[in-house]
Amino acid sequence: MIFDHGPLLDAAIARVTRLVPVAALYLAICAVPATAAPPAESEPAEPPAPFKAPYTPRSDADVLQEVPSTADPAVVEMRKLRAALDADPHSLKAAKQLADAYIDYSRQIGDAHFAGYAEAVIAPWLQVAAPPADALVTEATILQYRHQFAEAREWLQKALKADPRHAQAWLTLATLDMVQGDYKVAAKDCGEVTNTAGLELGLGCSGNLRSYIGQAHQSLTILQQVEGNAAAAPASYRAWLEGLLAETAERLGDWTLAESHYRQALMLLPRDNFLLVAYADFLLDRGRPREVLPLLADHTQSDTAFLRLALAQQALHSDLTQRYTWIMGARFEALRLRGSDYFGREESRFALQLQHDPQTALDMALRNWQVQRAPWDARVVLEAALAARQPGAAAPVLDFVRQTRLEDPIIAALVHDLRAQGDAAGRSGATGTNQ
Prior knowledge:
By secondary structure, this protein is an all-alpha fold. Helices cover about 65% and strands about 0% of the residues. It contains 20 helices and no strands.
């Protein structure tokens, strides 16, 4: 996974946050806690596989969506920022602070409503003759959140035309290039981050990049150096670094070190949806699904977290697996009805592992590959192609892994298996021809 970046602090060390493709459910879908009991016999039975039908509430007592508590410190802070903007509606600073708070909260709890609120706050500054760079970058951040990468890139280019030394614009652009696998351009962007934001953040950017181009050991060394200098930095910045270190350690197959950094990151940001989901994936890969249930029990409103709960239930051979699968399918259908089409990676995993439909999983993974090319995006293509027994379909990803020299023990094993499958198919075809 790529740890993306959000708004910078005005301080010397930037505040860097992770944006992920998550969306709250607008349609009526019943969320099931991780410890929920099976439905009573009097309840209607779930629809049969593939569990793609939206869920219709049975009564007014059904829970449609959990909303944040008014006592939540983040909610209190957002209300204060909202009041400040209402008192001075022409203040770009007040608008940006509120929009950033909404984006951060959206990321933390996995609820896209707040990204929409941020867009509404910043919209007036985008309609003027010469929009300020800060407003353009905020809009690009929201579009990146939605995986509207082409549009996000356009806004970032406008921002850099308005202010060529806008550090956050360069950092966001570098992240976008990494997400899409354009590492040569990302290297240039990281250089600009160094020029505009300073050595420490520039090292974090370039150190992160190295983990994707066959230089993971160098990446680890650089990021550890940055970590050592960040003791007094904001928690969000340190959590970002810890997340990068965890990811790099995974790339090297050092599971103990990776887990240590995940835990440190979550100590700093215990509610961060992306970190929680990334750590859940780590636990699932390590064969520890039982630990996923308490980890994500309070985060069922997040679709990405709910998918990991479903995968954990399946790995445990739980009686709840069918119900989780049904609800997850209904959530994806609701997202499609809303026009959201940026869950390709998650939908591919859902189709392959929970619906046992390799062909659909492969189709989704390949479509997703056209938009984003992070290591997990490569992985879902390889897994689906292997399960569908179509090694040729994975050729673009196999070429990408070879050209970039991506280091990842799980991906390396999949590449080996796919090549073996392709070789076996070739030998079988040659034998058939000879006969």
